[in-house]
Amino acid sequence: MDLQLNNKVAVITGASRGICRCIAEILSAEGMRLVIAARSDELLKEVAKSCSSEVLPVAIDLREEYSPQRLIGIAADHFGRIDVLVNNAGATKRGDFLELTEADWEDGFALKFFSTVRCIRAAWPHLRASNGSVVNIAGVGGRTGSAEFAIGGSVNAAILNLTKALADRGIKDGVRVNAINPGSIATDRLQTRIKLFATENKISSAEAAQAMTLKLGIGRFGTPEDIAKAVAFLASSAAEYFQGCIVDIDGGQTRTL
Predict the structure, then answer these.
(1) Lower CB density within 10 Å: C or N end of the chain?
(2) Is residue 254 part of a domain?
(3) 164 shares its domain with 206
């Protein structure tokens, strides 16, 4: 399918590794020009080298209040337009609720939630001009709470509600806003969890991975490509009737309505 994304411009946050690195590579393969943002300049340059279209890496800390506005300004000045904003910046700390600190909570919301709010607010006039779209990467923890993921679940739930609210606004302004909830995706963070599970239970990493998928009730872990292909679709005109949609890509892990 030709997604008709050639020469359009996407801004991608959290793009230095994992899911959003793959998103950058997939959108680049579709012919999009990219602005990719994260804190590591070195890793961003590696991502840029792996892409086939024009890519502008911007090393920036999106936890800082005015950094999102600066990022969007750089993107608009460089390319003259913004068609797609993919929000993925931010990893939240797992742990016992009673042991999580004020700083842990503040950091979780600062990077993943407030950077999303600020990036969208700054990009909105450009997206309105291009009839563009926003794709928020949240997570299944926003729909199904778990004791060890209190911060992440709360942040993701807030992003899902924000998606619905801005989709409602987007109907008037011609901006599509949707979200993806990835399940357990085979990134470096998941590999760390698998190794920890293996060590705690004195089994091999392969056995730990199998036990974890069985516990989740899924056939396999997801891949970054599973998410990236969905982002490309949601960013395209093929998804023009998608508005305020929350797409669970989790192998069937989420069983609630």
Answers:
(1) C
(2) no
(3) no
